[in-house]
Amino acid sequence: MGLLFAMNPFGRDIFARSHPGLALAYFTSVIVVTMAVASPVFAGISLAGAALGALATWGRAALPGLGASLVLVAFVAAVNPLFNTAGSTVLLSVVGRPYTAEAFLFGAVLGTQLAAALLWFSAAGRVLTPEKVTYLFGGIAPALACVLTLVVRLVPAYGRRARAVAEARDAIGCGPAGACGAVGKARAGATVLAALTAWSLEQGVTTADSLAARGFGTGRRTPWGRYRLTARAGVAVVALVALAAVVGVGLAAGAGWVQLLPQFALPAASPLVVAGWAAWAGLVIAPTLVGAGEEALWRCSLSTR
Predict the structure, then answer these.
(1) Helix, strand, or coil here: 93?
(2) Can you tell me the distance from the alpha carbon of 258 to that of 266, in angstroms, rounded to the nearest whole number?
(3) The total number of structural domains that make up the chain
(4) For residue 305, what are the contacts with CB-CB under 8 A and spacing of at least 6?
(5) Domain that includes residue 193, residue range
(6) Under DSSP, is residue 8 helix (H, G, I), strand (E, B) or coil?
């Protein structure tokens, strides 16, 4: 049974096997709306959709990241009233400054936006691999494709190299774990940072020489990819455009409006506003629902064998 589950051709992450252009359009639209619309309704729905997608894809392994997102929301919400004293509902006084409920809600909205955007960026980075980025931009903007590929690889490569250097220094008793005092730990950390800096400079020179040896930048590239626009992708594009259009109509009708200062207020629940909220919820949760449906169909096909 475990082998058959591992052979599942569908899986929970539908973007991992879809056309890269579809994934790019989806994540771009979701991230832009999440970051541009400072509404508690839109931000909360976006965070919930990103969290459901992470749980559907990774299961329990996603719980630490989701917990960190909630901590981020709570931190921003709690800290914002310390700097922003606007608002009419004073909860308490901190060092002679009013701590207002409106400023707390404003910080909660900002924190929710930030946490949701980080989760969506994480999902996009997992789906849009360097191979897919090169396929999308390699022909029309090879320099941009190269930069994006290097940026996507930068953080995980740095993390692996930092762990390798730290473990090697710990093995000889020179790592931060074996250092005495704050000064010793700082020196050990600075040594690891210096090694990372030297490695990154050498890697940059090696990458530049490798690109030059392959004739990068001397002419138009001819990218190759195994991706094809299928009827399934066409249906997904139509659904994406339709939901995005309804979201746009809802935003034009005031679905994204919110008054946080000096008093909290949301827009009236008119049909267009509710339609905009519902379309946004459908947009952020659609991949999870499709993936869950395919997973259920796969399990049913296994049970009938």
Answers:
(1) strand
(2) 5
(3) 2
(4) none
(5) 140-213
(6) coil
